[in-house]
UniProtKB/TrEMBL annotation:
Alphabetical list of PROSITE patterns matching this protein: AA_TRANSFER_CLASS_5
Coiled coil: none
Cofactor entry: pyridoxal 5'-phosphate
Protein name as catalogued: cysteine desulfurase
Species of origin: Thermospira aquatica
Enzyme nomenclature, EC number: 2.8.1.7
Pfam families: Aminotran_5
GO MF terms held by the record: cysteine desulfurase activity; iron-sulfur cluster binding; metal ion binding
This protein's record includes keyword Metal-binding: yes
Enzyme class name: transferase
Known role: Catalyzes the removal of elemental sulfur atoms from cysteine to produce alanine. Seems to participate in the biosynthesis of the nitrogenase metalloclusters by providing the inorganic sulfur required for the Fe-S core formation.
Gene3D superfamilies: 1.10.260.50, Aspartate Aminotransferase, domain 1, Type I PLP-dependent aspartate aminotransferase-like (Major domain)
Keyword Transferase among UniProt keywords: yes
Length: 390
């Protein structure tokens, strides 16, 4: 049976060139970088190269900070809790403006901060599934707002948010801006200084780097306190012995991902659109978001009358890995929150399936997926208790 991996928004294969670059830091150059002896100091040049790649890869200025974390979840926690300690707990600016479709590593932190005195406002999305500038202007009170936190691209739909104009407005009002760029980096151009954000989170395993390593961009002068204290690593901004192999891998993966942006925008998009067109040719289907307003690799599709979980298990049995947009909750599936937030009817929101490609996806894999998908949907609808051909 052919195996086809179409869940790249969950995690990606490590680029073989990245794996090769990481290998020597396990059994040859394994010293602690903070050690003064040669086993420690010999890894410093590679760390410098990695940091240079990270700065260049996300468009950070020399005076800014880029810290290496364990993952984007840590990066998001770090930003939100730093703003809480440095602004919300010390001033009358108690508000965080965010969206209803953020990743839980933003939304759940906001819920925790709300239990500790923060005021969280979720900005309503427009019919395209994004926050538009007029909405931000309507809700942003600079006297009361500590931070705006809006993701660059949504992990389930791939819908891209207008970060440049939103961040510019927040800055004009003297309000800090954070973007979770996890699903944008490696898919579309990301430049922190160009868009003017104060904080930007990312994660290596989303762009063919290793799992367990992420990063956080901090604009010069942006308020900050560490999430992790206990040592002078990362200039005191993130304590803990540095994951040298992961840092080297993430730096190279980011450089390779940016080299491949043209390929993402053309070939990956072409294969995504080929699959999307085949999905839309199946009766009673829906794809969320206008494709030109999405990152090039993602499809969130609904197949009326077919539970999302049932379809991904059927595909899985035939070697195809996809995921549901919807979060499962015990035996009763929750409707996909993103689809609910952008107004898709709740019945359809139970039928969401996400397909996310990468630069390693082949045309043969897409052709196989189309063939299997057509048959799976047909078969599942024949036994569906809710599907009535419209
Ligand atoms: C937008 C976004 N932010 C943060 C994270 C967390 O990153 P990590 O801590 O480095 O893993 C994810 C992971 N998103 C997904 C993980 O599995 N399916 C997903 O869509 C994400 O999509």
């Amino acid at each position: 049976m052919q195996r086809v991996y179409l869940d790249n928004n969950a995690t990606t294969i490590v680029d073989p060139r990245v794996k090769e670059a990481m290998e020597i830091y396990f059994c040859q150059q394994y010293g602690n970088p903070n050690s003064l002896h040669q086993f420690g100091t010999e890894v410093h040049p590679a760390m410098r190269v990695a940091l240079d790649r990270l700065y260049a890869g996300i468009g950070a200025a020399d005076e800014d900070d880029v810290i290496v974390t364990s993952c984007a979840t840590e990066s998001n926690n770090t930003v939100l809790k730093a703003v809480y300690w440095e602004v919300i707990s010390k001033t009358n600016k108690k508000r965080i403006l965010t969206t209803p479709v953020e990743h839980p590593s933003v939304s759940h932190v906001c819920e925790f901060l709300a239990e500790n005195g923060a005021e969280i406002i979720e900005l309503p999305l427009n019919k395209y599934g994004i926050v538009d500038l007029s909405t931000l202007k309507e809700y942003l009170d600079p006297e009361k707002t500590a931070l705006v936190s809006i993701m660059w691209a949504n992990n389930e739909t791939g819908i891209i948010f207008p970060i440049k104009e939103l961040a510019a407005y927040a800055r004009s009002q003297g309000v800090l801006f954070h973007t979770d760029a996890v699903q944008a980096i490696g898919k579309i151009p990301v430049n922190a200084r160009e868009v003017g954000v104060d904080y930007l989170s990312f994660s290596a395993h989303k762009f063919h780097g290793p799992k367990g390593v992420g990063g956080l961009y901090i604009r010069q002068g942006a308020p900050f306190v560490p999430l992790l204290h206990g040592g002078e690593h990362m200039g005191g901004k993130r304590s803990g012995t540095i994951n040298v192999a992961g840092m080297v891998g993430m730096g190279l993966a980011l450089e390779l991902a940016n080299y491949a942006l043209e390929y993402e925008a053309t070939e990956v998009r072409r294969l995504r659109d080929k699959l999307e067109d085949a999905i839309l040719a199946i009766p009673d289907t829906l794809v969320i978001g206008k494709r030109e307003l999405r990152v090039p690799n993602t499809i969130l599709a609904s197949f009326r009358g077919v539970e999302g979980e049932a379809l991904i298990w059927d595909l899985n049995k035939q070697g195809i890995a996809a995921s549901t947009g919807s979060a499962c909750a015990s035996e009763s599936l929750e409707p996909n929150p993103v689809m609910v937030a952008i107004g898709v009817d709740r019945e359809l929101a139970h039928t969401a399936v996400r397909f996310s490609l990468s630069r390693f996806t082949t045309e043969e894999e897409i052709d196989y997926t189309i063939e299997v998908l057509r048959a799976s949907v047909k078969r599942l609808r024949e036994i569906s208790s809710t599907y009535k051909k419209c």
